[in-house]
Design goal:
This protein has 17 helices and twelve strands. Helix content is 46%, strand content 13%. By secondary structure, the chain is of the alpha/beta class.
Length: 394
């Protein structure tokens, strides 16, 4: 059933909020049992028939499903009070581009006008939080021109490049989309509260895949980046250092989502631009020197999206993140467990099953480990990067 103010069934929300059920596993459960209500009724034996679920995980899920409806009801009440809308994958307002993702969220928490994303083409602008004046200038320049051209700029609401991109759009009174790495009951960074109000005032939208009360945490922001990419026809990287979350967004956009990847060239002697310049150097991103270049590159994906052939258009190449010199020192206990579980290669669900960990936490930690050059993704499988290879690549 649906409640007023929500565009999601209580059963789907219950599945989405169940600990250990990430987006990938959630979609597998829905494929197996057809509707969320049947997922909640599934037996341990039935749950075990789903790829990635073993005996221990099935028993834990069966136990968690007993309380799932109550948790979902409480979340809906809190969202009603906070003016936050919940959108499920079954609803017409759920962004079409996100339906193309294998790990698209089952539910979105929304403030503002989500309909704007269905009426215009979208482009992401990402980059460093600690950017230079040049980076801020280029983010504002590209966002201004692309917003004027009728595109919606998508970014993460973070300090630096993200903030500059959103601010340029709202100055024009144009909608922009903020994808948060925390629940919408929090404002992060706190100094952007006024900006986020302006985003909504300009007809834009703020979204999250996390429950309303989820506080900001470092391991949530890398996972958030796949939504930024997934919502967009293309991703523009502006001023990203070598170890930057923006590079992970670019890799996901190219390999996993089939999106255009573009980079604005920066100063060759600036560490802030090492990562984005390397994308251009290695051919992993198209160089864009002006917003017109972006419009030219997005013409084809926009045409395919309009005609309904975008998903099958192409699958791009992988951006190879440069391995780092860091070792196991400084890893969290959970990250050490994950590294120990990967061995010769495992997908996310196999790691979850082996380590008895939740899918969302594992996915976030894998991205952080990739940034440190300790693991790499090979198709659906994550593999360790040997210390020998790390040294050779430095």
């Amino acid at each position: 059933m649906e409640r007023s103010g929500a565009s999601i069934s209580i059963e789907l929300l219950a599945v989405a909020m169940t600990p250990g059920v990430g987006p990938v596993l959630g979609r597998r459960l829905l494929e197996r049992f057809r509707i969320a209500e049947e997922v909640l009724k599934a037996s341990v034996a039935g749950l075990k028939s789903v790829e990635g679920i073993g005996q221990v995980k099935a028993e834990r899920m069966r136990q968690a499903f007993r309380n799932a409806r109550a948790l979902a009801e409480g979340e809906l009440e809190r969202c009603d009070q906070a003016g936050v809308r919940l959108i499920g994958t079954e609803h017409a307002l759920y962004p079409e581009l996100l339906t193309q993702l294998d790990d698209g969220p089952l539910a979105l928490w929304v403030k503002g006008d989500l309909e704007a994303l269905g009426s215009r083409f979208t482009v992401a602008i990402v980059g460093s939080r600690s950017c230079s004046a040049y980076g801020m200038e280029q983010a504002e320049r590209f966002s201004t021109a692309l917003s004027q051209a009728g595109l919606i700029v998508v970014s993460g609401g973070a300090r630096g490049i993200d903030t500059a991109a959103h601010r340029a759009a709202v100055r024009l009174g144009e909608p922009t989309c903020v994808v948060m790495g925390c629940g919408l009951g929090h404002c992060y960074p706190p100094e952007n509260r006024e900006l986020f109000d302006q985003v909504r005032g300009a007809g834009g939208v703020i979204v999250s895949e996390l429950p309303l009360g989820r506080a900001p945490a470092a391991d949530q922001f890398p996972a958030r980046n796949r939504i930024i990419s997934g919502l967009s026809l293309g991703v523009i990287v502006i001023e990203a250092p070598s170890a930057s979350g923006a590079l992970i967004t670019a890799r996901q956009a190219a390999e996993e989502h089939g999106r255009e990847v573009m980079a604005v060239p920066g100063r060759i002697d600036s560490k802030a631009s090492h990562g984005s310049n390397n994308l251009i150097k290695t051919g992993s991103a198209a160089m864009v020197a002006s917003p017109v270049d972006v419009l030219d590159l997005l013409e084809s994906p926009a045409r395919h999206f309009h005609s309904g052939t975008h998903q099958s258009r192409y699958r791009g190449g992988l951006i190879k993140a440069a391995p780092s010199e860091k070792t196991l020192r400084g890893l969290t206990e959970r990250q050490e467990i994950i590294v120990g579980m990967i061995g010769g290669g495992k997908d996310v669900d196999a790691i979850c099953e082996s380590a008895v960990l939740g899918a969302e936490e594992v996915q976030a930690d894998l991205i952080l480990l990739e940034l440190r050059g300790m693991v790499k993704k090979n198709g659906p499988v994550w593999e360790l990067v040997s210390s020998k290879n790390r040294k050779l690549s430095e």
